[in-house]
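Training component of the fellowship. As part of building independent skills, the fellow (R.M.) carried out the full modelling exercise for a liganded target. The chosen ligand was P-hydroxybenzoic acid. The inputs are recorded below so that the supervisory panel can assess the work.
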Amino acid sequence: MAALAIGARRSFNRLNYKSKLNVGERMRHQHFVCAGLTLALAALGIHGAVAQDSIKVGLIMPMTGAVAAAGREAVDGAKLYIAQHGDTVAGKKIELIVRDDASVPDNAKRLAQELIVNDKVNFFGAGFTPSAMSMAPLVTEAKVPSVIMISGTSVVTERSPYYVRASFTLGQQSGIMADYAIQNGSKKVVMILSDWAPGAEAGKVFQQNFIKGGGQVLDTLKVPLANPDFSPFLQRAHDLAPDTLFVFVPAGQAGTFAKQFAERGMDKSGIKLVGPGDIVDDDDLPNAGTTLNGVVTAGFYSAAHPSMLNKQYVAGYQKATGHRANFISVGGYDGMHLIYAALQKTNGNADANAVVNAMEGMKWESPRGPVSIDPDTREIVQNVYIRKVEMVNGQPWAIEIKTFPAVKDPLKAVAAK
Ligand code: PHB
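Fellow's submitted model of the complex:
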């Protein structure tokens, strides 16, 4: 105990010598001073132990349940990164441990505890928003550097100073979508939103920008996350006669949405369908026929992104999984890149503060385009593209038509002002 206290104090002093601490460092520093739980002490013992030859990465993912598609995609992306880059970095063997939280946040918390105490993981890959939220206190107490691979909700990275986002935020895409819609003549919108945190955030940012641009929101319709039936909501939206429909559905639901949209004849109604990238998910697009043709979205990843790296990524992913690579898969792929690049920088040292410091400010080329980690917020900064669905060689693809470079999470940018 005494040794731990001295260690903590030394770390405290080291941080105090820094003339300017960024937000993450301050949070980690504050946490260090306040930490008192048994788990934190146990974990300090674990993570401060002798250097290991292997690095364990625990992915806690929704492999079954409401967002099972997202879990599969993130894990496939992470596995592809390891297959392409080898399973050794800075002399350490990378060991992936995948656990299914069944899209239930309480399970994620229990699994995180088990992985910390029994498996002594060095990193977590965190999955969808509710699970990332529920395991955050354990991540903080046990000081496990963790990469967010799926969640798109702004607040998540504020829940632990050891969270770094490799995925996206809904706000990043929805604000740009609203501005583009206004510029292209949209005046009256109905929003259809999956009824949980990312849906609320997509709607909030879209609405702010749409109203600021002189537009009007006629109604906001909320659809249950599990087993959604969009038909009654589409009927209601149709009856309100908007010129534009803004829709957020999570990964795995775009196919059902497109089918029900077409069944009501809404693809031919003249109402413009817009949204963040989720509505034209590349995992579902190949089966959408011509239903989504012409749909415009603001998204950070399209399998049609015309870079050499992305062509290789899409071909590799297709070969390994039989699916088209989508926006969730790049979160898993880039999440593994962050872990690899950080370990290279720290020379294999997996200490949480060293790793997160190494990740802050990191820049690299992703299949989605150039990305970086904002050193103040631990958020991914990335291009957002306006894309339009078109048939290419008999299949629908989201073709990029405009690029907004280096977009930050707008909700944090506002808070920082
Ligand atoms: C989330 O967990 O925040 C999430 C999951 C799937 C999506 C978007 C957001 O498509």
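The panel noted the following from the submitted structure. Confidence is low (pLDDT under 50) at residues 1-20, 32-50. The longest strand covers residues 380-392.
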